[in-house]
Amino acid sequence: MLSEMHIFLIFINLASITATFDSSAQTRAVTVIDDVLSVADTHSTLIQNGFGNRLLLNDTGIEFESLGGLLFAQITTMTTSFYHLWAGFENAAFLGYYQYDINVEDRYSLSWQSNENYSCPEYNVNTSCREIFVANRKTGVKTTSVDAALYDCRERAWYSDTKQHVSKRWTSLYIDRAAGKPA
Predict the structure, then answer these.
(1) 54 backbone dihedrals φ, ψ, rounded to 5°
(2) For the chain, give me the number of helices (H) and strands (E)?
(3) Distance CA 73, CA 56 (A)
(4) 147 with 158: CB under 8 angstroms?
(5) What does the buried/exposed string (b/e) look like for 24-62 if buried means 16 or more CB atoms within 10 Å of the residue's CB?
(6) At a CB cut-off of 8 Å and minimum separation 6, what does 46 contact?
(7) What spatial distance separates the first Cα and last Cα of the chain, rounded to whole Å?
């Protein structure tokens, strides 16, 4: 009953606001709504620009914290038909976010590997380990480790296709080898 009342109050509020808009205010409102609806596009642009201006990848290495924040913001605004969003690098570093409820019930999760020598001895993976973590619900920061596997992003088709085109870019949709789902 509370949710019905809440919806009813929003409807009344919107009706009264609409009655007071002039045509220029309505145009501005539509622009704001379009901007809000394009949040995923904005995150994508920020990530691409971050690589382009060397903020996220520079001479000192990969800025995992900023990249992670942007990828997490992106995955939380994407449709659930995509279950994984990631970035891979020449040194085999990898950062990817999984859609809600994929690896961890009722949570987002992330996969992370700092370089080709990253190891996960607690999972008996001594090199090229991609570790899976629970992501903090609000920030996306990795928390508890839940799994790991031997992995090298440089051996994946999405990585070699991007490298062949010699640019930092978004690739086409790929089917994840392990899950058999669009990623």
Answers:
(1) 65, 20
(2) 5, 7
(3) 15
(4) no
(5) eeeeeeeeeeeeeeeeeeebbebbeebbeeeebbeeeeb
(6) 70
(7) 38
DSSP-derived secondary structure letter, 81: T
DSSP structure class, residue 107? S
Chain center to CA of 24: 35
Residue written as token pair 């669009």? 182
Mean pLDDT of 130-155: 93
Q: Which residue has the tokens 């020449």?
A: 90
Winning range, highest mean pLDDT, from 60-64, 138-142, 168-172: 138-142
Bigger pLDDT: 51 vs 86: 86
109 phi and psi angles, rounded to 5 deg: -140, 165
- Identify which of 59, 84, 76, 86 has the alpha carbon closest to the alpha carbon of residue 136: 76
Across-strand partners of 172? none
> How many alpha carbons fall within 13 Å on the CB side of residue 15?
6
The alpha carbon torsion through 152, 47, 67, 107 (nearest 10 deg) reads -90
Q: In terms of Cα–Cα distance, which of 13, 12, 66 is closest to 43?
A: 66
